[in-house]
Amino acid sequence: MKINVTHSSMPTLDEYIKEIKPIFESRWLTNMGEKHNLLKEQLETYLQTEHVSLFCNGHLALEQALQAMGLTGEVITTPFTFISTTHAIVRNGLTPVFCDINPKDYTLDVTKLESLITEKTSAIVPVHVYGNVCHVNEIERIAGKYKLKVIYDAAHAFGETYKGKGVATFGDASMFSFHATKVFHTIEGGAVCYTDRRFGKRLETIRNFGLQGQEEIVEVGANGKMNEFSAAMGLCNLRHIDEEIAKRKLVVQRYKARLGGIKGITLCEEQAGVKSNYAYFPVVFKKEAFGKSRDEVIALLAQEGIFARKYFYPLTSNAACYKGKLKTAETPVAKEIAENILTLPLYADLTVEQVDRICNLITG
Ligand SMILES: *Cc1c(COP(=O)(O)O)cnc(C)c1O
Residue whose CA is closest, atom 5 of ligand 1? Predict the structure, then answer.
């Protein structure tokens, strides 16, 4: 049987039908309907944040958050992420400046951050990659010193807390993705979390074509709205999220028991103070020590119908569309990790037997 890197969690069909029935009755399908408003409210509680604005996907949420922040010039970010992060910066007419990552949790190396700040820098866009929480206190200190905005790409960090505080409470804004492949999803969807109401008003204006009332167009906006069927899926999935995360934890514990302590295999350590959502299970393979390279492991798994993914390779700074267009400093740690990392299949319904089969193939 085929095992993909992920497998969307779903409510039962009955639960979803019950949730969407009122939509058929009201015929209010999108534009901040009842389901949208209810999901927004529930997420504000769940994510421990003051304000949530819901979007049709995570990418547009980030892109429009950067626009609403009114940034200029350069934005310091990580190249070790999904291409969306870099595209969102470039599509706002901003220049991404790539900072290396630290070799422990693969988030921004905060010791290398300050040297990249110039008078053109207006913001930092760090990524809580794999759900590993960025070094938020140090980022806040540096941002404060140079008066920079901080917008987190929290696409992987749904529901996580650091020292008891929701991850969405750090920085000026955080973006979550609710794509079908993420820990929590609305089929397609996303959100921006923030505290500044004025920013929120501008963000929601941009989300709705820049319209203020019916006749005044005050921003070069777009359409970023979440529809009612997506919101209904979110309401269903949110009911089961804690159980889903608990099941993911069991999968991760099994992987760790099987792959921990093997020479040439590096796993992410648990971060102190972080309540994890177990979004991904990244493994770094060192061929000299382990005997097999990352690419050899992918191939041997694929032969058995198991599809692990090279998240994240290539580095976004090496994307073909940016060749010769961005001046990129060396990011040696990110380069090394991108060349050797593999994320193994991980989802709530993955069984211990399946994890064992995957691990037997890897170590065998
Ligand atoms: C999934 C993802 C996005 C984009 O979210 P979508 O909802 O798919 O548009 C952005 N950044 C990261 C790191 C992601 O993993």
Answer: 58
